[in-house]
Amino acid sequence: MYKKFLITLTDDEIDDLGGIGPEDEYSKEFFRKGFGKDALLEDARYINTEYSLHGSNVDKYCDWLTQNFQYSNRKNHKDRIYFFLKILLANVLISYYRHGFMGYFTIQLKKDIYTKNVYNQSLTAKSVNEVIDYLQDIGWISIGRKHIRPTLKKKGATKRYDWSSLFINGFRDYKIGIGNIVFIGNPIELKKKKELHANKEEPISYSINQDTQELTEEINSINESLKKFEIYIQDRALINFCKKNSKFMEDRGGSISNEGLMQGYYIAKYSQNSYKRVFSRGDFGKGGRLFHHWITDTPKELRKKIIINGKSVIELDFGSMNMHLMYSLIGNSTFSKKDLYQVKGLKKLERNLVKQFCTVAINTSTTYAAKLATYKAIYEKEIKSLKDAPITFVQKLDKVVEEFKLTHLVLWDKYFKSQHRKKDYSVKLNFYESNIACAIMRKCLAKNIPCYSIHDSFLTQVRYKDKLAKIMEDTFLEYFKCLGIDSVSIPPIK
After folding, report:
1. Higher pLDDT, 246 or 321
2. Domain range summary for the chain, segments of one domain joined by +
């Protein structure tokens, strides 16, 4: 896959990416001055151990690179060294594309970081330290700064390491590029707040049993099937988008200094070519949405410019998905195939109010809180630009909520009343949605139809539009039939 980037890093392509000649260390330092070395040090990225390199050319590169490494008699010592070395090399390559060879990296070296669990089966602290020490000894990495003071955002004080341009010589000599990068992490992730008042959930370990094994096999199968397709964004469309949306690039750690680096950022993103299914609240019955693939973080405007095996794409999505899931779960098909955010008598802008209110209402403590959250989300982004007075907006919102309540009284009594608030309905609905999404992808891929999920929408080649639409509708219906629900509210597909 990604034939376009299988053998990258020619001299011309280095220039296209805004990089430098691999032997030109002075240019590297000169280039960094424009961005500020200290800022780059602060932004040093941790080694991502979910990525590695694969291929016979990679093995040959590792053989050459470690020719002076002193192996012990420990069992599988060489295998362990190669395992981490390939992880490190993958991160070097990704960093090159992302930063134009000006980035630094950091890594945890303590033993307790590499305990064996469902997310780490093979990596050991000893092998990590041995590889880092060896590469320092031969001059392939150096310390950019020994100590970085912890901040509120970044806990821990770790060394910042600097890549040598010698790595890039090796990639060119052995013809290693983005196509050699593979995902080796666990495709199933279970998250939970580790502290009661923590802002976000973090990965926790879990037991491997028949259920979790089946989940793992399903996502591995989907990811493996997707490898046969070459997928990327049209170059010019990508560059034009990044020019118009500098904040988008900055928020994601990309550079907007020149066209090459903008494009290079997304080429780095292409290495994220596998899905992970992420569950919430420490419960495999909550969440489960598909993340991690670069397509899930790509704005809809850019997704229209994606190319799959040289062909243009179409994106189809389930309309008002959560509402139809709610109706289906209670066996009510009254509004099947209807746009449930378009309440009778309300205008287009008011439809957006309905959609936003529904999204937040099932996760807020009161109707007032839901209205307030809707106000902040909609007024500040959409209505404020029209100079609509806040009081007028509030009155309009009150009317919208009342009309919504009357139209969908059954759902209001079941999901939106105060006694039902904060029942984790959103992540429960995500669970049903993600199950359906996985089933749709499996069916499409079994028919050799490319299919990429962005939660409740799906992307494929234009020629498969009708087939995808039918698979989406049939799968939604079949899923609830399997749950013993005969009266199903099918979302409109558009």
Report:
1. 321
2. 3-185
pLDDT band at 64 (very low <50, low <70, confident <90, very high): very high
Q: Strand pairing of 452-454 and 457-461? A: antiparallel
What Å distances lie between residue 275 and 126, 331, 347, CA to CA? 30, 32, 38
Which amino acid is located at 480 in the chain? F
In terms of pLDDT, which residue wins out, 363 or 262? 363
Residue 467, amino acid? K
Q: In the chain, how many H helices and how many E strands? A: 19, 15
**Using CA of residue 352, residue 355, residue 360, residue 365, what is the dihedral sign?**
positive
Per-residue tokens: 258: 């020149």
Task: For the beta carbon of residue 272, count every other beta carbon within 10 angstroms.
Answer: 21
CA–CA gap between residue 37 and residue 102 (Å, rounded): 9
Q: Output the CA–CA distances (angstroms, integers) from residue 360 to 64, 144, 294, 373, in the order listed.
A: 56, 45, 26, 7
Is residue 379 scored above 50 in pLDDT?
yes
191-238 residue pLDDT tens: 999 887 788 999 999 999 999 999 999 999 999 999 999 998 987 888
Q: Over range 7-20, report the average pLDDT.
A: 46
Q: Retrieve residue 447's tokens.
A: 């028919």
Separation between Cα atoms, residue 256 and residue 263, nearest integer Å:
9
Helix (H, G, I), strand (E, B) or coil at 335: coil
Is the separation of the CB atoms in 147 and 159 below 8 Å?
yes
Position 250 pLDDT exceeds 70? no
Residues 8-36: what's their mean pLDDT? 47
Q: Which residues in 224-274 belong to E strands, given as ranges?
A: 231-233
pLDDT of residue 55: 93
Q: What pTM was computed for the model?
A: 0.86
Instruction: Name 392's Cβ contacts closer than 8 Å, sequence gap at least 6.
Output: none
Enumerate residues 6+ apart whose C-beta is below 8 A from 357.
370, 371, 374, 397, 400, 401, 404
User: For 17-162, where are the alpha helices, taking DSSP H only?
Assistant: 25-33, 37-42, 56-65, 77-99, 125-137
CA-CA-CA-CA torsion sign (135, 138, 139, 140): negative
Beta partners for residue 104, in sequence order: 162
246 vs 322: CA distance, rounded Å:
32
